[in-house]
């Protein structure tokens, strides 16, 4: 399977007026307004030829440790360099820099003990260090999405978190109509107490069942999934679309805000994987800010980055895992198109509209 990071995002929310707020790497993709065609790009490593010096870094921090270190860097005006084995912290760190461009902020991805700062002076820098100490950066490369068929049908049961309302519901509805798959939906609300939820469920034209459950409560999730399987049959695919998104500047974050966002994204995914026995397909909905950052979204970016990393690790047990990192506007047709690319796994970052801003 191809395991790649791809294109795609329009900015929203609390943003700086200059172009530095834009998300995405250089050339990360765009939509042609006339044709509606989304251009997607992957990433490849290329040698980094600028001077670097060895230095200390915060290694594989917990969310609490990362928050404390970031607060210290902002208060003291000191550099913040994080060393990790994945890009899970990238969105958080770039979000921090977008709000505090006077800082030197960096992520070093390494598989060994080599720790290298990402570059001199203020800015956001992101590099990888290999086992031999070689330093690399990422470069965008254009990719195409070939036509194909969605690997689901009437015999499948698709479990959709956050599937009662909003974009999760819209994608579930489109998937059911396109494949005939039965839809096992759950969310926080009760239909009797939420007219909008009741209306959305009433608009479904395919076989479905709905159960209320909070993604942050693993026992409630397990109970809901078992109830849904009793009505529809064994779950064969998961779409994890639920989560929390409360924009706030980094300086306004309270101690529990990161945990509030991480719980449904990461804990929710773990709860789904624990209760569903070897699904054939797992799709998670993240945000392009989780990879490329956004002002007023450092905590959201961290939650999505950690979820992306957890989804990758599920690849050893699940035949196909796909993380779709949406911009401000998701598209159900693109969701279906991505599912139809049979050998596509890994991360797809979706962007429409403006030219992206370089990461550095």
UniProtKB/TrEMBL annotation:
InterPro entries, alphabetized: KR_dom, NAD(P)-bd_dom_sf, PKS_KR, PKS_NRPS_Biosynth_Enz
Record-annotated Ketoreductase domain positions: 156-329
Composition bias, Basic and acidic residues: 8-19
Annotated region (Disordered), positions in chain: 1-37
One matching Pfam family: KR
Keywords annotated in UniProt: Phosphopantetheine, Phosphoprotein
Xref: PANTHER family: FATTY ACID SYNTHASE (PTHR43775), SI:DKEY-61P9.11 (PTHR43775:SF37)
Protein name in UniProt: SDR family NAD(P)-dependent oxidoreductase
Organism for this UniProt entry: Nonomuraea mangrovi
